[in-house]
Amino acid sequence: MRGARIWIAAxxxxxxxxxxxxxxxxxxxxxxxxxxxxPAAGHPYEIPAVxxxxxxxxxxxxxxxxxxxxxxxxxxxxxxxxxxxxxDDPPYRARRILFSWxxxxxGLGQPAWILRAAALENVIVWFVLAWLLWRWIPPxxxxxxxxxxxxxxxxxxxxxxxxxxxxxxxxxxxxxxxxAAERGRPLLVGAALGLGGLARETTLLAATLLGRLKRxxxxxxxxxxxxxxxxxxxxxxxxxxxxxYRGRVPAGGGHISVPFAGLVSExxxxxxxxxxxxxALARDEIAALVAFAAQGAWIVWRIARHGDxxxxxxxxxxxxxxxxxxxxxxWDGAPGAYTRVAMPLTLGVNVLLARDPRASWWWIALANLxxxxxxxxxxxxxx
Length: 383
Hints:
Helix content is 66%, strand content 1%. It has helices at 2-23, 48-51, 66-74, 83-86, 90-95, 98-106, 111-136, 142-153, 155-162, 167-182, 186-199, 217-245, 261-275, 279-306, 311-324, 328-331, 338-341, 343-354, 361-367, 371-378, and strands at residues 38-39, 57-58.
């Protein structure tokens, strides 16, 4: 009992440390809107409702994607013509509308409140994920602690919080779909994926979960209905966007490339940073890449060796494959956005490692090296 209390306290310390790190972003006048990464130079291009709402501008930043989803939240039906000037690719960003809708609802339609809600949305998502992970990886010892904390501190997870991106919401929907699959509720799987598809269309890759059902006539009908439930929200929203943008709704194939092209570009980037003595950048890239490689190797080995068809074992490989065919632009960065693409892989591998008492500490440590750039990113504000 005393040992259990120690590890419960360790989990609580991680959550408290996360809150303390988030607190670094607070501004008395602007709340936590620093998470939205509005660049000072971009203020004239913001939609008028956002220009008139108090929010933080980063003086030396070129901005990041969270600013676009925040502006969509202020105009959630994407009918404001000013969005065409304010957003880099309005049809593409508008596909991922769920994050913006939630911020609009939480902000009661008031632009200043909407921006503050958008800034904190992924902080709430982080805590919900922490609670779900507590159920999958209860605080029983040091192995569980590393796997639980490593999932929550992974670079992709923290990047979603730091830049107020819809990826965290997508991961939460996938986790809820896995929970429904574990309980044998295919229609709830479809509903969770349907919501997730509005957060990020790649969420629908987790429809592999529906393959767990028995292959009888009734199950096939249930699978078909669940698939319709999963696909319908995004299909209807895309149809609406085609009317708004007169067909200018990209399919998203521009982010898909030759397999391993992004991986090769990331290795080349590490080499350049080492040659230029940019050691902090190289450290973060190496840690994230080793973690990704370890996660990918472990899930492939587990499926090949044990034929695992548990829910996370069905989900994780799909996002491993997606990351490996992602365009080099997705891998660009130190580390790049591929860590967000691979978030379901990270979470799934850690849950499965927690269930495998034979998994070595080497696998656990290597698979969670992504926490190094994750923590560094969260603590980087103002440095």
